[in-house]
Design goal:
The structure is a homodimer of 408-residue chains. With 408 residues, the first copy, chain A, is α/β, with parallel strands linked by helices. Chain A has a single domain, classed as TIM Barrel. Helices cover 37% and strands 20% of the residues of chain A. An 8-stranded parallel sheet of chain A has the order 5-6-7-8-9-10-11-12. Chain A has a 4-stranded antiparallel sheet with strand order 4-13-14-15, with no helix packed on it. In chain A, β14 and β15 form a beta hairpin. The longest helix of chain A has 18 residues. Chain A is globular. Chains A and B meet through β3, α2, α11, α13 and β14 of A and β3, α2, α11, α13 and β14 of B.
Amino acid sequence: MAELEVLRDAAVLIDGDRIAWVGPRTEARGIHSAFRMPRSALQMVEVRGVLFPGFVDCHTHAVFGAPRLDDHQRRAVGESYQAIAATGGGILQSVRDVRDRTEDELVALTRLRLATLLAHGSTTIEVKSGYGLDLEAELKQLRVIRRLAAEGPATLVATFLGAHEVPPEYRDRCAEYVRLLCEEMIPAVARERLAGACDVFCEPGVFSIAESRAILTAARRHGLAVKLHADELEGAGGAELAAELGALSADHLAGISEAGIRALATSPTVAVLLPATMLFLGKRHHAPARRLIDAGAAVALATDFNPGSSPTVSLPFVMALGVSQLGLRHAEAVQAATVNAAAALGLAGARGQIAPGFAADLVLVEAADWREVAYWLGTNRVSAVWTGGLACPPPAAPLSLGFHVSQA
Amino acid sequence: MAELEVLRDAAVLIDGDRIAWVGPRTEARGIHSAFRMPRSALQMVEVRGVLFPGFVDCHTHAVFGAPRLDDHQRRAVGESYQAIAATGGGILQSVRDVRDRTEDELVALTRLRLATLLAHGSTTIEVKSGYGLDLEAELKQLRVIRRLAAEGPATLVATFLGAHEVPPEYRDRCAEYVRLLCEEMIPAVARERLAGACDVFCEPGVFSIAESRAILTAARRHGLAVKLHADELEGAGGAELAAELGALSADHLAGISEAGIRALATSPTVAVLLPATMLFLGKRHHAPARRLIDAGAAVALATDFNPGSSPTVSLPFVMALGVSQLGLRHAEAVQAATVNAAAALGLAGARGQIAPGFAADLVLVEAADWREVAYWLGTNRVSAVWTGGLACPPPAAPLSLGFHVSQA
């Protein structure tokens, strides 16, 4: 992971929505003939800056209603999650919010947010359900994702997270909710092909190891890939379960145990780390990224974009946290947000590299040195984005929105 | 600090470069007559979002050459500052860089960077010298600031920081450098009116308490206000010295002692906290913001924008860190980047408030709730900026820069 191939004065040849060739710029003018492309059909784009493969945000909860501003302040002044949740905050506030909104409202809210993710360079975005927690509201969230996936220009990957929390109406009968997930919700999601993977929030007090295993086993039986929110608070066997089940990824891992590190190091399951979440929550510790990498695990980074614990849309920001907070090298941070993030979505052969056959998803960053992508903190240096070979329209420039001048 | 006056459906009347009136929008259409303004001279600007007083960034080192990317990575993988500095990194790398560049080069580099600070809402920006460390190079940096201050549109406040580090040529004769500062450099800066204040990096191993006192006493004798980089690593009496000398501010303070907190609480010296620096450096602790506020100290936030330890241009990002990392309420974070930051520059009566007589520096933030300014992490929600009553041109939209399409 410490090595990144960096080409200077390079060119990329795009054919349709795929990359056909990448190499020295001096060879680019002639190369199209090898691909039997008529010269008249060629369009040349000259760029200034550093071109990256489109970033892959492999963990978001982008379908939500309002930001949870009260939670933020209450946590800042020292209130516990339990106290906040007991008085109307926490995940269940977003659940009530999402249940109360129409699909169209959620489409409109999410469309704007995905546009800002794209403007920060994310061309492939995983989006989870999990603020519905009943069949109807979960399917509503997944339909929002399907509609927005059809719109483009970003590639969306839907994950079913009905097991994000135990809904209030099942508070004291979690086993019934697990049965509902396994026997009704997962089959319905699979039948409608609304998600490619199923995720579970596996943590003491939420879903246990045994419950998580039951849910994910049902998901696999219905043809879904599996993922796991694991060991966020303590190393309770979540990473080991992810490896055992052949999960695409185990996510969070701030509390992962040594056994968990060994399990991921010897499995293809990707360790997805979410440092912006730890930062926003004011935690003083982070997932052991270096130990994971040194042990041989594949490490990815993601935003965890959500209204309660990670209101960030910027993977470059998360990469910079990867270097400053997790101790990654810049090259490791870039791979974590491209190649390895694609692997965490089962897309290792199609996204996250500028290489022949890969999707022509590209991000241009205003920088003299490629490492700057993971250096400038809290600002956006992405200057252009292409998906499937097409330039994405710039988002309505923020400095021009929002005000209107007239004579009194 | 926990209270912020928030007006809904409000209007601001601007006369020239000052705010003349602020109040309910329903009264705005008639109010101009009270100011004897002819109706024909009125221009109306309608905004959508939340209007803040222009943010005041009261601590930056914005005049520099190249980003220090190697330092970033070496620190991430565990090298000490001493090891990095011993092999060409650290502050002295930026000193060599600045000494080698012409004034014009530095003007061009700094102009671009100040434009991005402004685009993130900072309308008043303190800028320090301190990468020159000899008379000529320090004056060069201060002249860069003076030229850019004359250009506008942001208000720049220059601070002389010749005592940022002991220059290599004085490594073993620090007393001589202190004498040079007191007897040649400070008098020259004061004579040319190149700075309004003098700052010292007071820390064991850099400038001691006694040296700092000598330098700042000389500065006061020459009519400069004083500031202090204090107690960044340990509570060695820096905050107490700042209070004793009537400094405008004591900055950093991650290691401030109980005595230091008491000294600031009973003095007008503002405690300037720089959480982005601690984040970027990968530190696990922060200045005790809550204890400072609860003791009665005035707390400000600043970016510390510099190429080695804080490559961030965004005060809203720092405000969000204020809430998430320092335990501030949103209202405290906003006051820390406006009213209190203005006080840290001796501008409490002129900047940092939307109130009659204050500079018409305003920032519009795309938000439904004002607290969102200190909530979304790592993205820029500033949608318009005015300084001195005039709308600032939007910076060249990043998504349109950097590439050019043509037929092959």
